[in-house]
Design a protein that fits this description.
Number of helices: 3
Number of domains: 2
Oligomer: single chain
Distance between the termini: 45 Å
Largest sheet: none
Length: 108
């Protein structure tokens, strides 16, 4: 596999993420500078913080479940890509998302 292909892809992803951060910061500064009510600004920032935490929780749960899926694949001794291997990874990802949904409903 040629890993030289990953360099431009990574560069593109980093540029897109940097643009997203700059745009989000500008939107926040304009919202604060527009003289909106303090309650509105605080509620928007609180909601954004909660979304960020939920996103971290979701990715943590999904990655742990995918790791468990890879562990099962190793345990079963599968070496070739088979439909069963893909099904284990898809099921692990789905179970991780369902676990996140259940935990997020309990949190708030």
């Amino acid at each position: 596999m040629d890993f030289g292909v990953f360099i431009p892809i990574t560069l593109f992803v980093c540029i897109v993420y940097a643009i997203k951060i700059v745009v989000d910061a500008r939107v926040r500064s304009r919202m604060i500078g527009a003289g909106g009510s303090e309650e509105l600004v605080n509620s928007i920032l609180r909601d954004e913080e909660q979304r960020r935490r939920h996103s971290s929780l979701r990715w943590g749960i999904v990655l742990v479940s995918v790791g468990v899926g890879f562990g099962l694949i190793q345990l079963f001794g599968w070496h070739d890509v088979t439909p069963g291997m893909v099904a284990v990874l898809a099921a692990a990802t789905g179970l991780g998302n369902l676990a996140f949904f259940a935990i997020a409903r309990r949190l708030g």
